[in-house]
Amino acid sequence: MRPLPRAKALMGREADAVRVPLSTPTPQTQRLGILMLLGSVMLFTMMDALGKHLTQSYHPAQVIWMRMAINLAIVLAVLAPRLRTVARSRSPWLQVGRGLTQVASIGLFFTALQHIGLAEATAIMDINPVLITLGAAVFLGERIGIRRLAGVAVALAGALVIIRPGAGVLHPAAILPFIAAFTYAAGAIMTRLVRGDSTATSILWSTTIATLGVSVVAPFVWQPIAASDLWAFVGMGLLGTVAQALLIRAFSLAEAAAVAPFGYTGLIWAGLWGALFWGTWPDVWTLVGAAMIVGAGLYVWAREARAMRNAGG
Prior knowledge:
The chain has helices at residues 5-11, 13-16, 27-55, 60-79, 83-86, 92-113, 118-125, 128-140, 146-163, 175-193, 199-215, 230-253, 256-259, 265-278, 284-311. By secondary structure, the chain is mainly alpha-helical. Helix 11 crosses helix 12 (230-253). The chain crosses the membrane at residues 32-51, 63-80, 100-117, 123-141, 148-167, 173-191, 203-225, 231-251, 258-278, 284-302. This is DMT family transporter.
């Protein structure tokens, strides 16, 4: 995974700081970050389930625009008294990058949900924790060795088992959450880099940029919204707002490699929603690939935890 070259050139001193290791969080902040990530993952999978429901009747760009616009409206209403102060960012180009990676990952994922199951898409997307670990080493100065690189390779292999390229088993759209995992990981690394900004500032910037980005496409695919679907659009916006706030706070409090593996709980929630609402269960290859991804991620996490204990004496 490579940084955005144009953005990196424009960031100046921010780009120079990319490879500087960040301060080590305390055990208390690590635990709090993990709890926040767990809550974020559950809410995001609920939002994804609503998104899959809506993309059966509406274009993904319209669904995403509604999700982001409702999110932005909530954020603006909450932050209105101090909007001018909150809007100031110490890392504006990184915030722009976060917004663009957010809309890219959501767009790719929701487009895939039109063609494949929620559990399959989530399993493929869940290679992002090991990608975050790799990115944290490259861009944040966090340590990585041959064993962690092996974990990254196994996770990528697990994703390929699920996608099964060339086998003609799974829909070609399965490649979309694979790409989305890379954009999600890039956004997570940028979130770690903008810790100088408050959570409110990060939410305002990413939501605004994402809404503007999808506004380029939405008018061309718009169709009237049925009254019976309004609750789903509103629910998706509310869930996305809270989940995003928890996600940003989680990566601000704890090391990326420490909290990222807990994102695998999304597989459980996605499987549950898929079974409850669509009666779909992941096939054996999805389970094998998911096991490879989760196993690789947990191995990387175990290595990180051991390294932290050794560093602590």
